[in-house]
Amino acid sequence: MWSNIIDGLGLFSSWQALSAVLIAIPIGLIFGILPGLSGLTALAILIPFVYGMEPFVGLAFLIAAHAVTTTSGALPSILLGIPGTPPSAATVIDGYPLSKQGRGGYASGAALASSAIGGVLGCIAFALLIPILQPIILSFGSPETFILMLIGLLFLASVGSGSTWSGLVAGMLGIFLSFFGYEAISGIPRFWMGSEYLLDGLNLIPIALGLFAVPEIIKLIQNGKPIASDSGNRTIAFSDVFLGMRDTVKHWITVVQSALIGIIVGLVPGVGGETAPFVAYGAAKKRSKAPEKFGDGAIEGVIAPESTNNAKEGGALVPTLALGIPGSSGMAVLLGGFIVMGIQPGPEFLRNNADIGVGLAAVLGFSNVLGALLVILFMPYLARVTLIPGRILAPILLMLVVLGAYTTHNSFIDVVFTLFFGLIAIALDKAKLSRAALLLGFVLGAAVERYLNLSLNFHGPGFIFRPITLSIIIVAAVILIFPYITKLARNRP
Amino acid sequence: MLLRQVFNNKSIVKVTTSVLLTSIAAMAGADSHAPLKGETINFVVGYGPGGGFDTYARVLGPALAEELEATIVVQNMPGGGSRTATNTVYREDPDGTTIYILNGVPSALGQITGAPGVTYNLSEYTWLGRVNAEPWVLMVNNDSPFHSTQDLIDADRPIVFSAMSRADGPSDSAAILCEALQLECAIRLGFSGSSEARLAVYRGDADGIILTDTSINDSVQGDQARAITVLGNSSSQYFPELEPISEELELSEDAAFWNDYRGNVAEIGRSIVAPPGMSDELTNYLRTALETVLTDDEFLSELADRGLDINYISGSQLESIVNSVFEASKSGRATEIENVLLNKYF
Amino acid sequence: MKLFETIVLGCIVFFMGAFLVYGLIEQYPQQVLAFPFTVSALSALFALIRIVEIKLGRHPLQESESLKTVNEGDVSFINSYIFILMILPPLWLLGFELGIPLYILVFCLYFRIRWLTSLSVSLVSYAFIALVFNGILGARLPRGILLPMFV
Fold first, then answer.
1. Which of the other chains make 3 or more beta carbon contacts under 8 angstroms with chain A?
2. H or E segment to which residue B101 belongs
């Protein structure tokens, strides 16, 4: 046990591994900042570079680059209202209003600190789970996955800040959009209207960019003012960033709660990582004493999704290494990287190479902390972007959006759809329908259908009464009802 | 460059030099012995970067470029589980500037079952040569009561298979195994990928899953399952102790038909094709070039070091395999085949 | 804005309904349509409840999320959107590497940004695409349809 830990740390501290991590971190940070390019793209592009590296060095390189994409992905969400990576979309909801109030540095500081803490918690969870990985993952079957996703859907109503019913309609629209393309069991492409583009259904990146980026660009063109114009031209100082970091520590319960949500979602193969930050956001809002501030710049609304984003990668590493089953889409590509280096993840692998497991946990923790520190260092310069006049910034952002939309699938139609969803976003927003709820519905919709069908296929309707399923339902019910009970109790003299 | 100094990464240097060499060669001008000299050839991959097909294309591309004295650019065209690419390449000009690494099993099954969105016809494609093909193997959970193919036949309960969707590889091979051996089966669909379908076997929700021998080998190496049956007529390099069912069992004529049928589909494997209607001269030129590359011992051992198997057969052999698959589908058994593949065991 | 909200809600329900009808015409099996049907029915119900809420004058005080200033500024919303759509023709004709810098240049000059600034922003964007996307990422950005015709 101890020898494994010492060997693992030894692997991590070799100069090759350290230099690989140090090179990978800035690369990952840049991928995170550019909208449309995500950790997934980063891995796909970096994998060819690891041919010929030592297995541990190559893995450290890939994991470090992937881990920090969500750290820097928070910045465009906060400063520009454009999610840098799809999981950062939840950060827009409260991060961007803060930025417009001139508190972008404060929000960024909070995001970076909670990213780092969440990432470290994720890697601790990973390290602790290594010995008991297999039974945990095997106990999560389709019914348990289905229930987890259903709980995710319950948060639809609380993501938006308008009427509950509006949030639900927007969420339902998102779910409906996820039904386009091949239906899992029959193989029939739904609603494809003879278009090959729709065979696989609508793509996530054009929807995320269209919903969140295009409206901001339109607004910049309309008034030509810089983003931080509401607050006068005030540059961001380190003191703002530190204030945000301090407030993150103050809200440590939110950080831990969100990290736990991320770890659990990451553990379960098949649950999209994009779901976790929204669930964490909803949970933080439920817990908050002032939920009405959410959507207008509540700092917990920034802390929760960012902590989750980084924590979930630790969780997602668990099934990837323990079973060779990827816990997130990024991990699926990472698995390709393992195989390139001649490593076959699985229980046998971890039994014989526990040191590699420990070493990778160290890489994960180290890159999360260093990634956040690097961004904090450059923060005052990066934040000047909010002071660029709107009509110079608008075409530049449009360029990034167009490039990001195109490169994910090399598809020009994706670019057209991005602009189209921008129009939809404006209509939704004017009608006070939540764009975030739509995105959450889209991410969860098809998967809920898939896992319900699988649960019924394998276990029949009785799947609800499986012990783990039942316990998840009870815990969720308690979390959902608890705030109302405390409120009642408080109102009573 | 920094990367290179730190990690002494040889492959990048090799790739870069080969690209440089080919582009220098490309400037030398056209040549009747090298009809594609100086051209840029699109090497289409039906999946995104990072997967098996992409890896093969990126490794083969430079070698083939050198042989053809052309520039080869890998183009990823993901969509519809490679269906988009198979449709698109089918409509391209057969002038040699488009080649495609085709995934035989799903492409053939899509056409056989008349899946929505299929607009190609595999028998019309120009077949240049096969990169590799893998036998399909059944694996079961370590605690499963089934230890051999005979145990499946003797089973007194339905055997549950996990799969993704109809005619996806795992589901149709399970259906054909059940039909050939007259097993009582239930094929459960709906998993989003083969790794999740595999997880259902580890968990014991399903008895088994049929996948290519390489992926089954991963699970068996990981000590999570054991292989018990090899489908088709050729044995697997990973499981030399298992005979293919055509040798393991006395197959009836009907059983042999089904086994051959699915075996032939699997034989199409990963093949390199060009759009239909290519001139004989150009076809032969490309076939020869591919053969030179794929039978070069030095290149093969380099690939083997990276865990990439090559199992070459010529374009003309490949063409006759494809024809035999579609002749069987056209014969009187077409409706029967469709029923087994799509309905009977689901 | 109450009317607009009702119209958008109606459009959403209509959109789902239209696709359900399409599914029925295409004769999708029951199981393929079950989930889309449930979701459409639920959203019709929720939309109805929301419309009743609007009629009763129950407007939540907060604006949703962040787009509070959609109508501010001296360029109308429609024109701004058209400016965005105008990026498509240069992309299609000249490709990404040339089309985007050209678009940025024309865009900035139209809005009377100083020409030196416009030119440098455009050049930087060209360098960015060439270096980051074509160089480092190896993305094969399309070249557009005009250039190959003349070269």
1. B, C
2. strand B98-103
> For residues A375 and A377, what is the distance between their CA atoms, to the nearest angstrom?
5
Q: Which two tokens stand for residue B136?
A: 């399909």
What is the sign, positive or negative, of the torsion defined by CA atoms of B73, B74, B79, B85? positive
The CA distances from residue A298 to A52, A106, A240, C59, in Å, are: 48, 11, 15, 22
ipTM of the shown complex = 0.92
Contact (CB<8Å) C85/A419: yes
Q: How far apart are CA A390 and CA B153, in angstroms?
A: 72
d(CA A356, CA A338): 12
Size of interface A-C (CB pairs under 8 A): 216
Q: Look at residues A276, A341, A332 and name the one whose alpha carbon lies nearest to residue A43.
A: A332
SS3 C32: helix
Can you give the pLDDT of all 346 residues of chain B as single tens digits?
333 333 333 333 334 434 444 444 444 444 557 888 888 899 999 987 767 888 899 889 999 999 999 989 888 888 888 888 999 999 999 999 999 999 999 999 999 988 888 999 999 999 999 999 999 999 999 889 999 999 999 999 999 999 998 888 899 999 999 999 999 999 999 888 888 888 899 888 999 999 999 889 878 877 788 999 999 998 999 999 999 999 999 999 999 999 999 999 999 999 999 999 999 999 999 999 999 999 999 999 888 877 788 999 999 999 999 998 988 777 778 888 989 998 899 8
Asked if A115 and A372 count as a contact pair (C-beta separation under 8 A), the reply is: yes
A-chain residues within 8 Å CB-CB of B345? none
Distance CA A205, CA A439 (A): 10
Q: For an interface test with A, give the residue of C64, C71, C115 to mutate (most A CBs within 10 A).
A: C64
- The rounded Cα A25 to chain-centroid distance in angstroms is 18
A490-to-A478, A485, A493 alpha-carbon distances in Å? 18, 9, 7
Residue B293, token pair as written in the block = 């590359």
List the beta bridge partners of residue B76. Answer: B45
DSSP B183-206: --EEEE---SSHHHHHHHHHHTSS
Partnered with residue B73 across adjacent β-strands are: B42
* Pick from A186, A398, A445: CB nearest C29: A186
Q: Which residues fall within 8 angstroms of residue C48, CB to CB, at 6 or more apart?
A: none
Q: How far is CA C142 from the centre of its chain?
A: 21
Contact B115, B167 (CB under 8 A): yes
B34 forms bridges with which residues in the sheet?
Answer: B31
Gap between the Cα atoms of A384 and A198, Å rounded: 40
Please give the model's pTM, rounded to 2 decimal places. Answer: 0.83
User: Chain C 48-77, CB below 8 Å of chain A: which residues?
Assistant: 49-50, 53, 58, 60, 62-67, 69-70, 72-77
Q: What angle do CA A180, A183, A187 make, to 5 degrees?
A: 125
Query: How many other C-beta atoms lie within 10 A of the C-beta of residue B213?
Result: 23
Three-class DSSP category at B126: strand
What CA–CA distance (Å, rounded) separates B323 from B142? 39
- Burial string for B90-102 (b: 16+ CB within 10 Å, else e) reads bebebbbebbbbb
CA separation (Å) from C13 to A430, C33, C34, C39? 17, 16, 16, 10
- What tokens appear for A447 in the block? 């998967």
What ranges in A328-460 are assigned the alpha helix state H?
A: 329-340, 347-352, 354-382, 390-409, 412-430, 435-459
Q: Round to whole Å and give the CA distance between C20 and A251.
A: 46
- Give how far Cα A248 sits from Cα of A293, B78, C26, Å: 17, 41, 54
Burial degree of A236 (CB within 10 A; 0-12, 13-18, 19+): buried
